[in-house]
Every structure is written in C-alpha cells, then in structure tokens.
Amino acid sequence: xxxxxARLLDITLPCGGYAVQLVEAYFDxxxxxxxxxILCVAGYIIEKNACxxxxxxWAAVLQYFKLxxxxxxxxxHGTKPFDMLAIAERIEAEKQFIAIIKKSISYGIALTVEPKxxxxxxxxxxxxxSPYTFCAHACLAAVKAWASETKYDGKVSYFxxxxxxxxxxxxxxxxxxxRMPKLRADHRYASHTFADMKDVRALQAADLIAWQWYTDHxxxxxxxxLEPRKDCFELMHDGPYHALHY
Length: 246
Hints:
This protein is of the alpha/beta class. It has helices spanning 4-12, 48-64, 72-77, 87-104, 115-121, 131-150, 167-178, 181-186, 202-221, 230-236; strands at 18-26, 39-47, 107-113, 156-161, 189-195, 241-245.
C-alpha cells in the first residue's frame, strides 16, 4: 500500500514535476451528498518528491493512532474509524496531519458554491456545466494560473478521488480540456487519474482542506460564526492558498 503513490508518480512524472490532488466534497448533517446546500472542491499542488514524503509521513501517523485512513468529517465527529479515539487524541492526530500538509504543499486550492443558488442564477450551458463542473474547472484554472505565476514549465499529474457520483463528469471535463494542445500545455498536463483515497493518502490531505473550507462556508451561511475554526485558521493562515466562497 505504501508504494502505490510513488509508483504512480514514477510512471506519470518520470522526470519529476508536480501532483495535484482534488477532492469533491458534498456534505449534509448526515454526512451524505444528496441535496447538500454546499459543494466544495479542494486540493493541493505538491512537488513529486514532497508528495511521496507526505504519503510516507501520513502513513506513519495513521499507524501511530491505529487508523486505516483519515477522513476529516469522521475525525471531527468521532465516527468510524475515529470512534476508538478520545477527543484529545483526535485533536492531536489532526494537528499532526496539518503539520505534514503545511511543510509539504506548494499551493492550496479550495472553492465552495451553493448548488441551489448556482442553478437559479447561472443559465444552463455546456460551457459552464453543473456546480461541480464549474468548481472543478475553476480549480484547473487555478493550477494554470499558479504555473504561469511561478513560471513552472514542467509537468503536472492530476489525481481525483475515485467512486464519486461526479467521476464521469469530471473525466469528461478533463478529456475536453486536455484534448486541446494549447490548454494541455497551459495546464502542464502529464496525466489524470482516479484513485482510492485509502491508497493515495495525499487525497486524504485534500479531504482535510475540503472539509474545513466547506465548514467555514456553512458557518457563514448559518451566521453562526464569522471567524474560522481554530484548526481551519492553523491550516490556512500562513500558507499559499487560492480559496473562494462563490
């Protein structure tokens, strides 16, 4: 298991480069995705060697806390597999994961949209697509802008979490964009892959920022708290992020 990401990166980025992990996150009070008032798409740009190191260190923290995988919603609410940990242990685990992220990433991307309002405002269009397609496209645009601003001229491999209901839509979006030579070059495209979050642990890091940015927007929507959670602030306050609430 520990070598899956390293092997994927060696295949897709044999001469080095960057990996982008994007996670689609729908949440409601029950933890499902049906009829959620908020959609968040978020992830990280991580240099290849740093990504492999993140994967190794993430695995070590999981092993220490006897966790098979990390899911931020489960950590926050104490549901499986975090139900065996006391709240202080859950907080400590998250602190360690945040520390790994902060020293590993080159850039973070987090976008939220309210699907119902989006569909009321935006006219149906193949160019814009669904709320998810809109956010995914905006994430890709952020990667392109980052590459241009940093003058990065190497390759980028894109990783999406597999099994989501929007997988076919995301794949179609990527295929459309990367079929065009100029856009393929602008996005520094090497490959895109749908992977199991339990195997590619960098996707678990993306899940952490997706949950935090979703929760921040939810708190603002409900006018409960305008300031971010302490863990959200710790994760994002001094890091390079492109983060928007649409």
